[in-house]
Amino acid sequence: MPHLPGMVKQAVKECAVLAEKTETEFGARTSAPPRRGFALLWGAQTISQFGDAVYTVALPLIVYDATGSAGSMATIFGLSLLPHALAGLVGGVFIDRRGPRGMLIGSAAAAAAMTGLIALLVAASQVDMVILGIATVLLATAASLLMASFETAIPRLVEGPELVRANARLETSRVIAQTVGPICAGFLVAAGSGALATLANGVSFAMAALLVLPIQGLKQTPAATASATGADFRTQIRTALSVAWNNSVIRFGSLVACAANFFVAILEVYVIFVLRNTFGVSAGAVGMVFMAACLITMLTGAVLRRFEGRVALPFWMAISLAALAVTCALMALQTDLAVVVVALLINIWATVLFNTYWRALRQRACPPGVLGRVSGIVRGTSYAGGALGSWCGGLLTSTASGITGFFTFGALVLIVLAPVTCRALVGASEVGPSEAVASGTGASEQK
């Protein structure tokens, strides 16, 4: 593709403009350069995210080339979500007790090993679904622990006034990775280098581990480590579960996120199947479609940022649920290629919108001392819904009427959830975490 370098340069340029606007809006500019520790962490996370972006598109393409089955694609994708249901919560407790450094290095190294194994299987043309499924579960477990470790490490390296600026840099890197990664994956798989696309993710994990090694300040203090006991571990788990259930905002939002993920988690994988199987789109073109979707998401996000603070967070969640309902309706139709592409664009945009405002809402509603573990529970619930939905959708792909019914029912459920979510959360979200604890809708951290 002769215009590919220009497209990539334009994507990077748009991301840089977005980053500058974000930093200016939040008033987070500082004259001090980034600390060395954060700079290394930033590099580690950016490299890892690029590898993930390549692998996320490459894996379904590899499974399709090996099996030609949407069911197999959905099964493997569901397995990649399942470990997040538990690993985030349990890993969060260990990170709080031991510090993120060991988990960062260990999980990145384990992920590199698992991805290397998958690359060897692809290179040898021995893509056995059972072995691939086991490797996918192990890789997803390590990746879940790595995500939690990155999130926990940031406040240890960046002081409070600089957190917004630091997160703006990380978000910009993530957008660039998700924009450039898919098109790289598509062209590598199209060129017969599925193993190379997979290996790129493994190399990114290994480089992330090496970059984390010299970072100081990520170890837990000896006193904090010595105070951790088995009973304390169980208490922390029970406290987090109690807060997640008794806080009405977190409980209702988690159930909504789980339901939404049940119907839309399979969508991107199924879009890849439809593009390749029904419309004969090349792997390289599939990557370009995903790149375009990420660019549109980035640009619309910049426009929507102008309305932040003017509209309640639950209202944005309702808009995103309605948009996801439209996505499911379009996928139920599948009348032509343009409909499928538009469905993908709306899905990526709406998913980013929902996740952004749902995360902000639960951070506002949850007591700070238990936020990390509660976030693990919330993510786990959502991923569990996505895994179950992927498997159900995968079983229904054997017949056109089955998958059409799945997406039609999803559209109906989501369009009903949109106004219900807005009405249920607008009033409850006005209660802060301290008030929620006092009124019985939350629970304080037990020491």
Low-confidence stretches: 1-5, 14-34, 221-231, 429-447
- Overall CATH architecture: Up-down Bundle
What is the average of the pLDDT values?
A: 78
* Percentage of residues in helical conformation: over 70%
Total strands: the figure is 0
Tell me the Rg in angstroms.
21 Å
What features would you describe in this structure?
The chain is mainly α and 447 residues long. It has one domain (4-24, 37-439): Up-down Bundle (Growth Hormone, Chain: A). Helix content is 82%, strand content 0%. Helix 4 (84-98) packs parallel to helix 6 and helix 11 (248-264) runs antiparallel to helix 15. The chain is globular. It starts with a helix and ends in an 8-residue tail after the last helix.
Brief sketch in words of this structure:
The protein is mainly α and 447 residues long. The chain contains 18 helices and no strands.
What's the arrangement of secondary structure elements?
Elements: H1 4-26, H2 36-67, H3 70-81, H4 84-98, H5 100-123, H6 129-157, H7 163-190, H8 194-212, H9 222-227, H10 230-246, H11 248-264, H12 267-277, H13 283-304, H14 313-333, H15 337-365, H16 371-396, H17 400-428, H18 433-439
